[in-house]
Amino acid sequence: MNYYTISQLAEQFDISTRTIRYYEERGLISPIRTESGQRLYTKKDRAVLKLILRGKRFGFSLEEIHEMISLFDNDRTGRKQLEKTIAYGEQKLKEVTERIEDLMQLKQEMESILSDFRERLQKLEGTK
Amino acid sequence: MNYYTISQLAEQFDISTRTIRYYEERGLISPIRTESGQRLYTKKDRAVLKLILRGKRFGFSLEEIHEMISLFDNDRTGRKQLEKTIAYGEQKLKEVTERIEDLMQLKQEMESILSDFRERLQKLEGTK
DNA sequence: ATTGACTTTTACGTAAACGTAAATTAAAAT
DNA sequence: ATTTTAATTTACGTTTACGTAAAAGTCAAT
């Protein structure tokens, strides 16, 4: 298993190193360190970063993303903990589903507006 | 046709009046005024506000939303303008489609993680 | 007519999510 | 060995999207 440096990840995702360090400040990602203190990122860290960026694109706050990440990498073994995690996950799943439906409606509207514009353009072309 | 006051809209959408005035500051919404200067919102204004809030839920910035709104209420008649508007709309439509696909993938992943957790819970229940 | 609820503008404050710069140290390249 | 490039921490700055408060005018109800 080999590692990524911070600038490699920054380049891959087209974000700044500051941004990556900021996510670490906020507890979202935890790279290991070399003896001299340099950060090294595993594939898993990379995957987490990808998750963070995806969450951001959907308008989730870093705090929300933080919670969702704990859902993913969490080793909760207790029954109570498991139930809590499942309940939280179900709620988030519901939110995601709602967003999808919402977005699909938006898509519909945009398509109808677009076809309206296209029609107008057709008419203009006709009278040229 | 009758009007809404700012606090009526604020209540309907569960946002502050400050927020609505801020959207106006940014040029996203333009209510008419009474002689004394009070803002009055039409149904159309209400629809625009709804659009803004939806855009926000999807993580669009007010600036992006502004652009998308001009797409909706815009009376562009020139051929060049129409073509530009259509091109912009198609691009946004593509973005929305990508987001939907992205979200559906996220949904899949969450579902699989959840079923994994549920399985674990089952096993725990079994050994009780 | 006056109280109370609502609205307006102006303006300063704030949290989130970084940007940017400085000083220092380490790694990579020549 | 020494330049160049990349990394680290610290810390102050900035933008977006509002919150909050003050001062003053207005509308609605009693």
Automatic annotation (TrEMBL), chains A, B:
It holds the Pfam family MerR_1. One of its GO terms (molecular function) is DNA binding. Residues 3-71 form the HTH merR-type domain. The keyword DNA-binding applies. Keywords: Coiled coil, DNA-binding. The keyword Ribonucleoprotein does not apply. CDD domains: HTH_GnyR (cd04776). SMART domains: HTH_MERR. Residues 79-127 form a coiled coil. PANTHER family: HTH-TYPE TRANSCRIPTIONAL REGULATOR YFMP, REDOX-CYCLING DRUG-SENSING TRANSCRIPTIONAL ACTIVATOR SOXR. This is DNA-binding transcriptional regulator, MerR family. It comes from Anoxybacillus pushchinoensis.
